[in-house]
Design goal:
Layout (H helix, E strand, L loop, with lengths): L1 H45 L7 H9 L1 H40 L3 H9 L5 E6 L6 H4 L7 E6 L13 H12 L4 E7 L3 H8 L9 H6 L3 H10 L5 H20 L3 H9 L3 E8 L4 E13 L2 E10 L1
Parallel strand pairs: 1-2, 1-3, 3-4
Antiparallel strand pairs: 4-5, 5-6
Length: 302
């Protein structure tokens, strides 16, 4: 019986020896890993990199150019964000000044506008950032329903739908404005695009598809002012396109009806921001000579 005990003891001792050997091997491996991590941490500290996760750190060490690019992009984004913040800070201050100096001082008026609007004017002007009708004409909230588009064009009634035509219908039939004022202006990019347009070009440009509304003004200008320089032709067309838009207004049945009844008056205007002058004229009620319209009450404000 003693022999099995000895065999059993030998097996125990052999097993313990194996376990101790494995434990020693694991300890060596662990120490090696720790030394590797210490070396890695040292490299990362020298590179001034954060040490939160070893895998991204190793990837960053392998791809230094990518990391540099990301840092540059972050700086650029920071500059853009700062610039945008400054721009909107200006708008914020302007709004708060408006609220303090105008809104709160005329609270009853603005509360009335919150309930309804009854503007006397429909103003159609260019989207050009230099031509703000509220600014140059001193229009106050509630005074004018304003439509702005490229080259201040009014399409004729029979063409397809557009935002301008929707605004005409709403302002004339619902708001019952008493005056429509179409304002052209100097150095108009939309008119320049119209005058530069090639009739044979089949373009998918949205700009071309829109300014072609003023094609009749371009044709008239080319016929009348062909001897003038291109810049002078554009200036002529800037005014001619206003008159063509006034004529187009009369193709809308509800506008023509109100004009004939004397309930609506149509006006043209031209703002020259080079010398800060304004020219205004009024369409003669339903008066037409051939393909032209008669105007009255031409005034120059300078």
């Amino acid at each position: 019986m003693a022999r099995p005990l000895i065999q059993s003891s030998s097996l125990y001792n052999s097993s313990s020896s194996v376990d101790l050997h494995k434990s020693s091997a694991r300890t060596k491996i662990l120490r090696t890993q720790l030394r590797f991590l210490e070396v890695e941490q040292t490299h990362l500290r020298l590179l001034n990199l954060p040490s939160c996760n070893s895998t991204p750190k190793l990837r960053a060490l392998k791809e230094p150019m990518t990391l540099t690019k990301e840092k540059v992009d972050e700086k650029e984004m920071s500059a853009v964000t700062k610039r945008e913040s400054n721009e909107f800070t200006t708008l914020k201050h302007r709004f708060l000044n408006f609220k303090k100096d105008k809104y709160l001082k005329n609270l009853e008026h603005f509360q009335g506008l919150a309930n309804e609007q009854s503007p006397k004017f429909l103003v159609i002007s260019c989207a050009d950032s230099r031509v703000c009708p509220s600014n140059i004409l001193g229009l106050q909230p509630g005074e004018a329903f304003i439509v702005r588009n490229i080259a201040n064009l009014v399409p004729p009634y029979e063409t397809g739908p557009s935002e301008t035509k929707a605004a005409l219908e709403f302002s004339v039939n619902t708001l019952k404005v008493e005056n429509i004022l179409v304002i052209g202006h100097s150095c108009c990019g939309g008119i320049r695009a119209l005058m530069s347009m090639d009739d044979e070009t089949n373009s998918s440009s949205f700009i071309r598809s829109w300014v072609i509304v003023g094609k009749s003004a371009r044709t008239s200008t080319k016929a009348i002012a062909s001897s003038l320089s291109f810049d002078q032709q554009c200036k002529h067309c800037e005014k001619e396109s206003v008159n063509r838009s006034l004529m187009n207004l009369l193709t809308y049945p509800w506008i023509k009806e109100k004009v004939n009844k004397g309930e609506l008056v149509i006006h043209g205007g031209y703002y020259d921001f080079i010398d800060c002058s304004f020219e205004k004229w009024t369409l003669e009620n339903n008066a037409r000579v051939g393909d032209e319209v008669s105007i009255r009450n031409r005034e120059f404000w300078s």
